[in-house]
């Protein structure tokens, strides 16, 4: 909306993503540089800023990049004692919440590292290459996702909370439906042929 785009079609990718097809004439004529600038404008988080992308030490990356040094040492000594990432997250969150409760006491400034981490890992990431390349291959709505077999379906933004990605049809379920329909059709055709033969 900030960029004046009016005609948008939101499509579930069939896996984890969502595609926004912008169909405005003016936007379709944008240069790759203008497209890249639009994606940059819409990007709140830069990928990999906190580190730990796919690495086994992601929990340490939290403390290295998002947590101020005054809290880092305690967390790094306590993290290995925790059984899993859920417990580590609870430890970090509790520590950050305590810093926010004691504001105004002059001890230390409030810390929002837990919020920053959630933003980094949960905010949607935009694929700049798909967006800026005018010749980039796009998946069409109703195509099949090659890894999940799910159908890429348009999203109804008015009923987005009702959308269940696991309820989306798969290529296997569609083939089964077609087989059942095909059997019914063959049976109908056989009955019709038999009736015509009798009538003759």
UniProtKB/TrEMBL annotation:
It comes from the Eukaryota. Its EC number is 2.7.7.102. Residues 180-200 are annotated as: Disordered. One of its GO terms (biological process) is DNA replication, synthesis of primer. InterPro entries: DNA_primase_S. One of its GO terms (molecular function) is DNA-directed RNA polymerase activity. It is an enzyme of class 2 (transferase). Coiled coil: none annotated. Pfam families: DNA_primase_S. Residues 180-192 have a biased composition (Acidic residues). It catalyses: ssDNA + n NTP = ssDNA/pppN(pN)n-1 hybrid + (n-1) diphosphate. Belongs to the eukaryotic-type primase small subunit family. This is DNA primase AEP. The lineage of its organism: Eukaryota, Metazoa, Chordata, Craniata, Vertebrata. The gene is Prim1.
